[in-house]
Amino acid sequence: MKLDADQQALIEPIDQDAMLAHAREWSAVNTGTANLDGLAKMAGMLADAFSALPGEIELVDPAPVTAIDADGREVNRQFGQHMVLRVRPEASRRLLFTGHMDTVFPKEHVFQDQTFLEDDILNGPGLADMKGGIAVILHALKAFEQSDVASRSGYDVMINSDEETGSLASAPLIEQLAQGKYAALTYEPSALPDGTLAHARGGSGNYSLTITGKSAHAGRNPQDGRNAIVAAAALTLGLKELQNAECPVNPAKIEGGAANNVVPDHAVLRFNIRPKSPDAAEAFEAGLAGLIGDVQQAHEVSIHRHGGITRPPKPVDRRAQKLFDLVRDCGASLGQTIGWQSTGGVCDGNNIAATGVPVVDTMGVRGGKIHSPDEFMIVSSLSERAALSALVLQKIALGDPL
């Protein structure tokens, strides 16, 4: 397949140099999820950049989020604002584009600078995951807005501040924006450096179990104590027994304890699960409830649960597969070979799919080694992936059904 004249005209305005400048400018700002000052600066920069598009821009406050500290207390967590752009809300066919401004690199991390490893390979924090992806969103939409078909569809763009920690402070916003959308595209980096997309995804859940026992002297009257650490160990072993191929379970940390001569009356157990289907998630929840009850009774402790499934599993239904097929066909027109594979990773695409909206969630740049100081972006993939998105938008605006 080759591009026709309208398609060629659509992608011609995409400016590779401008895209690279944006990605590098944004990468230079540290936006670790806990760096509220950096996130505030970034949100302002994004609002300025996306003001080149029509519509209304809003900085949305994060939803309330709590966590369990090492003492078992429920505490508030702080997050940055999310940027939202709404274009042609009256359109009958509307799309959702999502990305995230936060990275996994905290303010004090040594990885802050950019370095060209080769002419087309740029190493830098968040370039692939996913400030390069944000540049793809912006410049694909700028090209689309110059086309004759732009008025046929509308869209919302959401760039959140907390994706790297599970999007708890933006999940209600994602759900709200996804309602009624025809389709969605999320700009995580490609699953592989060759441009392969992530297909079906498992889910993810994070939990904290706070165990309260009873302290006693370890030598004089240990029988009067109720050892919270031992109960936490029993929970840990029980969690691994709940694990199966459809739901991996990872007990990650036990906090608590006291002096060696004191029976510990407090512990916090933290763990993660990765259910591959909604049925697996439900089965785990039932098993967890039974395990908690059994340990409470056997060890005479109380157990408080915090957390749950934060990313629902993302199967690929018929409409979602048609969106994947559309992306593949548009790639073929551009001379790009687009494949896909299932993955155990999670992202905001999981949340979008849970609303019933078809989504492809790795439309960002090609790169690799994300979440490490070796993270890199393939520079030429900026304009390559922007052209892919612009062509997908044009096809949908022209009425290609899903």
In total, the number of strands is 18
* Tally of DSSP helical segments: 10
Backbone shape: elongated
Query: What integer value in Å does the Rg equal?
Result: 24 Å
Biggest sheet, in brief?
6 strands, mixed
β-sheet strand percentage: 15-25%
Q: Within the largest sheet, what's the order of strands?
A: 1-4-8-5-9-16
Helix content: 25-40%
Terminal Cα span: 21 Å
Order of helices and strands: HHHEEEEEEEHEHEEEHEEHEHEHEEEH
| Helix-strand category | alpha+beta
Low-confidence stretches: none
The pLDDT mean sits at 97
Give a written overview of the molecule:
By secondary structure, the protein is of the alpha+beta class. Helices cover 34% and strands 24% of the residues. The protein contains ten helices and 18 strands. The strands form five sheets. It has a six-stranded mixed sheet with strand order 1-4-8-5-9-16, sandwiched between helices. A four-stranded antiparallel sheet has the order 6-7-18-17, with helices on one face. A four-stranded antiparallel sheet has the order 12-13-11-14. Helix 2 crosses helix 4 and helix 6 packs antiparallel against helix 7. The longest helix has 22 residues. It is elongated and about 85 Å long. It starts with a helix and ends in a 5-residue tail after the last helix. The mean pLDDT is 97.
